[in-house]
Amino acid sequence: MQGVAKGVNAAIFSLMSLAAAATPVQSLNSAAVIQGIDAAVQARVENVLGFTDTEHYAVYRGANETHPAAQMTVRDAYQKGKGKTYTVLSESGSSIIERFGLRPLLDNETEINLPSQVANSWFTSANYHMQLKPGAQQVNGRTCYALSIKPRRVAPNMIDGTLWVDAKDYSIVRVQGVASRKPSIFAGTTHMMRDYENIDGYSMATHARAESGSVFVGRTVVVIQYYDYHLQLRPKQ
Questions:
Q1: What is the value of pTM for the model shown?
Q2: Structural domains of the chain sorted by starting position, each given as residue range(s) with its CATH number in brackets
Q3: Average pLDDT in the 74-85 region?
């Protein structure tokens, strides 16, 4: 049972990991797009003073992605300068997964969102090496630029993969890749993705998925849905 919990941790913690107007693709270069991404992230940091949302976590084991082995619904409250707090609204399924997988996930999210830590997880050039890929792509009905990203440091919540940003304002649309470091020696490679939507003018996570597997604990999939956002924004001058 502890092995199952470690497999869940491997998938879960890897998730915690999850500007100016654009010019024509032909005239863009990596530096211009990266500068736009940094500016979009900074605008969100400066103007989103807090938010609440509801998050549903589902953990699947083996080949079964229809019936979760464990589920949890929480209310998340974030306040700039203070961090995150969670209130569990409901939970069901395996008590082992809840105790050793989902509960530690909330503790980890609380820790990485502390004022002294939160900037380390942002998708900015300070945390990632970024390189623009050629052309534009459609992601969730939005025209996006894709960039390869590689963390400047190795950590389970850092992603080595691809970042998609909106071609109009450089806000984050999707990130996908693998964890830069395994959370456990029992875990195999962990693949993850997170989708974002524009809510009140700022990019907020709406869906995430992580999958990991190993000969020790088998396959584990964790899916997170984020909804019912309420943002507290800085008053406009």
A1: 0.84
A2: 2-233 (2.50.20)
A3: 97
